[in-house]
Amino acid sequence: MDFGTTILGAMGIVLGLFMPVMLVGLILWYKARRNQLMHQTALKLAESGQPVPPSFFADRSGPDVNLRQGVVLLMLGLGICVALYLCGIKFWAVGIIPLFMGVGYLIVWRLEGGGRNAVTESK
Hints:
The chain contains 4 helices and no strands. The chain has helices at residues 3-47, 63-86, 96-111, 118-122. The N and C termini lie far apart (67 Å).
């Protein structure tokens, strides 16, 4: 092996290992920054004497979010399993991880009361 191939292989390994860490760090930074801006806005509203609406700090997650995430992860896992199996790759079972994560989200959605006459509750 020559020096260029070794460097290219090392760079691929380093980037492959640190890319997920960088993505998680970027997501956490974004959420922290959004929270900071939201609190600064609430503080400015309070300082100017205007009321801060209670919905400003309301939790934006709910049963519908769990349903959507569950279905997306379920289908993603199923798609990975089928695609890897059809390609003849031995590690097709990797898709079981997101598949069961999706099943877990669907269980949480169901336990939180999702699916119980959801059409009439939203009207």
